[in-house]
What we know:
It is built from 2 helices and 5 strands. By secondary structure, the chain is mainly beta. The chain has one domain.
Amino acid sequence: xxxxxxxxxxxxxxxxxxxxxxxxxxxxxxxxxxxxxxxxxxxxxxxxxxxxxxxxxxxxxxxxxxxxxxxxxxxxxxxxxxxxxxxxxxxxxxxxxxxxxxxxxxxxxxxx
Length: 112
């Protein structure tokens, strides 16, 4: 299957009043599953609403694999008939990072 999702978050600044929005964080992604493999391509952008200040953006990819003893390993079912085992593995890559920071104080660019 193929799925598109988006996540939109707005934040207010305590110094300007609780109702005045100051930041808009957006995430857009495509995800899917093919057989035992899941995947995701995602773009995230965090920026002030007034367009001044620091904007942070990154894009990443992720691949995951799932292996289950009941469906994928006949030898496991034979040796351990009343036990199940599920294994997950994955790898990701931050392939675009214009200025996404690694620390809460906006210092130290995240690895790319």
